[in-house]
Amino acid sequence: MKYFFILIIFFANFTFSQDLLTLEKAIEYGLTNSHDIAIIKNDATIIKNINHIGAAGVLPNITISSGYNGAINNSELDFNSFLSFGEDMDSSIDATQAKSVNISSSIGLSYRLFNGFSGIYTLRMFEKQNNIADENTRYQIELKILDIIKQYYDMLNRKHIYNTVKTSHQISLERYNQALERHNLGAISKINLLNAEVNLNQDKVQMEESLIKLRESELNLKLLLGTPDLSFDLQHEFNFNQNLDIETLLKQTFSNNASIIIAELNYSVAKDELKISKSNFSPSIDLFSSYSYNNRKSETSFISEQKDNGVIAGINVEIPIFSSNMRRKNFQNAKINLDSKNHSLEHIQETIKTALLNAYYNYSENLNNLVLMKSNLETIEKTANINKELYDLGQISNLEYRESQILLDQAEISYNSKLSQTKIQEYIIYQLSGQLQSK
Predict the structure, then answer these.
(1) Which distant-in-sequence residues (6+ apart) come within 8 Å of 431 by Cβ?
(2) Mean pLDDT confidence for 261-266
(3) What domains are there in the chain, each with its CATH number?
(4) Mean pLDDT of 364-386
(5) Residue 11 confidence (pLDDT)
(6) pLDDT at 93
(7) Integer CA distances (angstroms), 117 to 56, 267, 320, 326, in order
């Protein structure tokens, strides 16, 4: 029990010294400090580095090469008898430490003039894959924002619960003190005092449990925000968008939803892959050209030095005839993959549409329920105040007063919980319709 009161005092001081954390600031912290988002952005950058114009095969290849070879050899040369070099020339030669040198360098260019437009289709595919990387980054950021929003409102709701049960505990403490005073005066029986003590202990346990859950929710929020040492408190006013129109939302969803856009891009990429596979049946035409220079020197050769330089150019045509039926199989697989991507696109469109409709109708119903719940809460508050006056006058029992207080606590907790649930539902609608990051 001592530990519990220390925890209460610590939390009270902790809350008092904290800065208020708005939802907008929480999202800013979360996106800035998120390791997951940083990794996703790095992955997108890698994809873009891979998918560039050079990898599509539409640029020429230029290479420069140069080499130097040197050798020192001991050679013995014996000439055939039918070779005559004059009487002064021996029929054999001994060459000691004979040097030979070969210097070569060249520059070459090769360019594929035609390959069934495979390079153009590949370039288009790369552009769409880069767009997929961007959309996937946006989608992951949206999921991160939703996680922060849900955890933010979870902590806010747990804070409301804690404040409610804390107030109830204070009321139970006052009620117990009144019961103790009346019992000492002989106005009530021992059983009534014991009932008041039981109620006080029950409220104390609930307050302790709600404080633990609040602290747990706070730690989870700090983990999402990447701010373990940040001290903050939450204070939030609920404002709901009453002007959402389902037809407008559906149009925005099919044009802006990240999952649908990714599915559309994947389908388009599959089309390009089919065209690339089909282009493999076409002949390919390559242009090549090079300039080379060679310088050879040798002390044992008939020619002591030889220099060559020149230009080579040509066109190479390659016509595919047979490749173990691999091209045809690849083409068939590309057609199957295109059909699969089409099914995937339709499935995602239907799934997102259903999710939006459910979220919208739940949100609309929740707004209506909030009006009723608020009216009901106000009525219960009035009843609880009347019962308190009657209890103070001794006209109702401790049990009746206790029941009215429990009913009020339940109404307050339900109303605040519905506020958070409805606001989360609103943000889910924004995410499904592709508007979350603009809100």
Answers:
(1) 142, 145, 146
(2) 98
(3) 2-33+115-282+322-438 (1.20.1600.10), 67-113+283-319 (no CATH)
(4) 96
(5) 44
(6) 57
(7) 11, 20, 15, 19
Least confident of 150-154, 193-197, 295-299, 319-323: 295-299
Chain mean position to CA 257: 15
CA distances to 68, 195, 280 from 172, in Å: 98, 11, 83
Distances (CA, A) of 285 to 112, 278, 289, 303: 6, 16, 14, 40
| Residue positions counted in the chain | 439
CA 158 – CA 20 distance, rounded (Å): 16
pLDDT for res 438: 78
55-95: per-residue pLDDT in tens? 888 889 999 998 888 777 666 655 555 555 555 555 555 65
- Dist CA 389 CA 407 (whole Å): 17
SS3 77: strand
Average pLDDT over residues 231-248: 92
H/E element, 64: strand 61-78
State the burial class of residue 133 (Cβ atoms within 10 Å of its Cβ: 0-12, 13-18, 19+). buried
Cα separation, 324 vs 328, in Å, equals: 9
Classify the C-alpha dihedral 19-22-24-27 as positive or negative: positive
CB 143, CB 436: distance < 8 Å: no
The rounded distance, in Å, linking the Cα atoms of 390 and 48 is: 74
DSSP letters, 254-294, are HHH-HHHHHHHHHHHHHHHHHHHHHHTTS-EEEEEEEEEEE
Q: How far apart are CA 271 and CA 338, in angstroms?
A: 6
Q: Which amino acid, residue 323?
A: S
3-state secondary structure 79-134: CCCCCCCCCCCCCEEEEEEEEEEEEEEEEEEEEEEECCCHHHHHHHHHHHHHHHHH
Place of tokens 């390959």: 115
Q: What is the pTM of this model?
A: 0.84
Please choose, from the candidates 410, 394, 409, the residue with its C-alpha nearest in 3D space to the C-alpha of residue 175: 394
Q: Is pLDDT of 103 > 70?
A: yes
Burial of 362-396, coded b for 16+ CB within 10 Å and e otherwise, reads ebeebbebbeebeeebeebeeebeebbeebeeeeb
Give the residue, 23 or 98, on which the prediction is more confident: 23
3-state secondary structure of 295: strand
